[in-house]
Amino acid sequence: MAKLDAGSTLQRLQNRYRLVVMNDDTYEEVVTFRLSRMSVYIMLSTIFVLLTGLTVALIVFTPLKYYIPGYGNAGIGREYRQLKYVTDSLEKQVNYQVQYIDGLKKVLGGNADLKLDTTQFQVPKEEISND
């Protein structure tokens, strides 16, 4: 395989070419461009950089940024955490109420497994004094 030297590569980038746009019916030249590979590369790179810059500016300076996952202001995150705490506490309260209602249903239905306290207390008698 032939080795390319830097001089020939640079020369190929600087070679001039002509781009002619012609009318197909009359063979009249409508537009003529003198281009080189380097100028085409620079033009395409400039267009790419401009489009990328415009896209980033559109996202950064407009409300479109709120549609990016993970992007938002601190207030929204704080509100989210507060709502999560309230939701968790409400969920606990509902679970406690469900347990209470199930316990009442068992007691009223006669299905409760109650363990009666059969321990007897020894209450000391008070001494009555005849004063």
TrEMBL record:
Ranges that cross the membrane: 40-61
Keywords: Membrane, Transmembrane, Transmembrane helix
The name this protein goes by in its record: Peptidase M23
Organism name: Flavisolibacter ginsengisoli DSM 18119
